[in-house]
Design brief:
493 residues; alpha+beta; Aminopeptidase; Alpha-Beta Plaits; 2 domains; four-stranded antiparallel sheet
Length: 493
């Protein structure tokens, strides 16, 4: 009997090993998108030094997002737009320029074939402010537009004047050569992306919808090539095919006001503390399934170590190990599921006074598999027995965007150009965990992609919205070449 059990166990182990091996072997990159003809971007006669000078000039305009504060400076935006017209005359002669809602810009470079859906390219004019207490940490004046060490330094050099200037350089390059598109090319430049895009991108998108515009695809900022991908340890070009939603939950606890010397069993502060803890810890799925993560991992499979590939291909078996490893990585948690972050709390005015109420804000970044209505319902269930606690969204929540195709001709075009410009970086789809203007254009195009054709190190990424933001001249050159190739292959052939 013992031998039979041992033999049966051996068979089970062999079958299991074979199954695990089969799944590991077949956990490979899907067939690449159909090849698309692209030009040799290295042949373009680009003056990278002149482009860098133009980006440096653009940085000097303090186009900080306007919030209605006394420090708002609309004139900086107006001067920046005048500078654009003066700096890129060939493009402005070829395209129609429209102001949308005051400072929003919509350019139409009309194609000769109106039957082809237009190409829609996005960037934004505004930048985040530079806090006074960080200025001394900058190597240069953050609005000085300094070129130093082979890079353009200053606020917005990466986010997002780098993209805007590169798009203008590319379009002006083609227009100056007398090139004319067959497919119409649209350029949409918002002015309040950093504060939600309600006045810029949302209004431009609404205008395009009123005109019944249906774009071939949309391309915006959001992801890029990174020098060290955590799964492979090497470079990877990540094309954002979806964007997480954004929602802020308001948790309010009401208690009995009075003196702290005779407190009730539950105070507003203790109730709020318990409610925030429960919501923060409520069960939310984090998995490679149900979003861009699985497609990304498959695309990078040839570059992932055998042990990691085995674990990912057999999540059903190695789930406890995977969950343990992923739980220790905030980056992985953000990629694989909705994140919950308590960010603000307010209640009480003195140490010895019991407040009548206490309020907290909890920020959710919503994964494509989740929905804001379900998250709100789950939060309310979590605190249902806490009397005096109410939960609601502070403002209208934003769902995650739809997941765009990785088999479309538009994705293939972006991927092919990226691979030509950054040949050492395998291309993979990704999930944008922040917010971009592209979310406003869901009604304008089925496929919306988020990608800057640049190679960033970890140190580069830390400067975005931070101290010492800078874009290398090499990366600017890459962007200009990419956008010329995109317009030429996508709209002029």
């Amino acid at each position: 009997m013992g031998r039979l059990i041992g033999a049966a166990l051996a068979v089970v182990i062999l079958v299991l090993a074979a199954f695990v091996g089969y799944r590991t072997a077949t956990f490979t990159a899907p067939p690449p998108p159909a090849a698309v003809p692209i030009p040799n971007t290295g042949a373009y006669a680009i003056d990278a030094s002149a482009a860098a000078q133009h980006l440096a000039q653009a940085v000097r305009f303090r186009t900080v997002s306007m919030t209605g504060a006394p420090t708002d400076d609309r004139g900086q935006f107006e001067q920046f737009q005048s500078w654009m017209q003066q700096t890129y005359p060939a493009f402005h002669a070829a395209a129609r320029r429209e102001a949308i809602n005051g400072l929003g810009l919509l350019y139409t470079w009309a194609g000769s074939d109106p039957g082809q859906p237009p190409l829609l390219l996005l960037a934004h004019q505004d930048v985040v402010p530079v806090p006074d207490d960080t200025r001394t940490a900058w190597r240069v004046d953050p609005f000085g537009g300094v070129i130093q060490g082979g890079a353009v330094w200053g606020r917005g050099s990466i986010d997002d004047k780098g993209s805007l200037v590169a798009l203008m350089e590319a379009a002006n390059y083609l227009a100056a050569q007398g090139r004319h598109p067959k497919r119409t090319i649209l350029f949409a430049f918002g002015f309040d992306e950093e504060i939600g895009g309600a006045g810029g991108a949302q209004q431009i998108a609404a205008e395009l919808a009123r005109r019944h515009t249906r774009a071939w695809f949309v391309l915006d900022e959001g992801m890029a090539a990174i020098a060290r991908h955590p799964l492979t340890g090497g470079p990877a070009s990540l094309i954002g095919i979806s964007e997480k939603g954004f929602a802020t939950m308001r948790v309010r606890a009401v208690g009995q006001p009075g003196h702290s010397s005779i407190p009730p069993r539950d105070t507003a502060v203790s109730l709020l503390s318990e409610a925030v803890t429960r919501i923060h810890n409520m069960p939310i799925q984090h998995s490679i399934e149900g979003g861009p993560a699985l497609a990304m991992m498959r695309a990078l499979a040839p570059n992932i170590s055998l042990t990691n590939r085995m674990a990912l291909a057999n999540e059903w078996l190695f789930s406890p190990l995977l969950q343990q490893r992923l739980a220790s990585s905030p980056t992985a948690q953000a990629l694989l599921g909705t994140t919950v972050a308590p960010t603000m709390i307010n209640g009480g005015v003195r140490p010895n006074v019991l407040p009548a109420e206490a309020v907290a804000m909890i920020n959710f970044r919503v994964h494509p598999r989740d929905h804001v209505a379900d998250l709100l319902a789950e939060a309310r269930r979590a605190v249902a027995d806490l009397h005096g606690v109410t939960v609601d969204w502070e403002s209208p929540p934003l769902e995650a965007s739809a997941v765009s195709s990785t088999t479309s001709s538009s994705y293939a075009l972006i991927a092919a150009l990226s691979h030509q410009i950054l040949p050492r970086a395998p291309v993979a789809p990704g999930l944008v965990v922040g917010g971009t203007d592209s979310r406003s254009y869901a009604s304008v195009a089925e496929n919306v992609y988020r990608f800057q054709p640049v190679l960033f190190t970890d140190d580069d990424l830390e400067t975005i919205h931070g101290v010492n933001e800078h874009l290398s001249v090499q990366n600017l050159d890459r962007m200009v070449r990419f956008y010329i190739g995109l317009m030429e292959a996508g709209a002029m052939q």
